[in-house]
TrEMBL record:
<feature type="domain" description="HTH marR-type">
    <location>
        <begin position="16"/>
        <end position="64"/>
    </location>
</feature>
<dbReference type="InterPro" id="IPR000835">
    <property type="entry name" value="HTH_MarR-typ"/>
</dbReference>
<dbReference type="GO" id="GO:0003700">
    <property type="term" value="F:DNA-binding transcription factor activity"/>
</dbReference>
<dbReference type="InterPro" id="IPR036390">
    <property type="entry name" value="WH_DNA-bd_sf"/>
</dbReference>
<protein>
    <submittedName>
        <fullName>Transcriptional regulator</fullName>
    </submittedName>
</protein>
<dbReference type="InterPro" id="IPR036388">
    <property type="entry name" value="WH-like_DNA-bd_sf"/>
</dbReference>
<dbReference type="Pfam" id="PF12802">
    <property type="entry name" value="MarR_2"/>
</dbReference>
Length: 109
């Protein structure tokens, strides 16, 4: 098991909403607990973010038993006027590693 990442203070370039969306894009069946650990958020914060993303049409989910399968709307445009015309897919292309890239380049720790 990997050690917990170091805590972070101060500002960052990527919002928690973008981090959660990227975690879901990486694994559409990911558990909220795992998103929270990966993004360094509480499970409650992740639930709130998922609710925001669903309410605004960026994300939907289906439930099978105890498993949620998330579906991202890649063509949906980003909300901020500075990103006018950019899609969710454009954002995710920056945040989510392609499986072939992941196999070639191990994550630095």
């Amino acid at each position: 098991m990997d050690a917990a990442p170091e805590p972070h203070t101060g500002w960052t370039f990527v919002t928690s909403h973008a981090r959660v969306l990227a975690a879901i894009a990486d694994n559409p069946n990911v558990r909220i607990r795992d998103i929270a650990t990966h993004c360094r958020l509480t499970e409650r914060a992740v639930q709130r973010i998922i609710s925001d993303l669903e309410q605004d049409g960026y994300l939907s989910h289906t439930r099978e038993g105890r498993t949620n399968t998330y579906r991202i709307e890649p063509g949906k445009l980003l909300r901020h006027p500075a990103e006018a015309g950019l899609s969710v897919a454009s954002l995710l292309s920056l945040l989510v590693q392609d499986e072939t890239d992941r196999a070639r380049k191990p994550v630095a720790r």
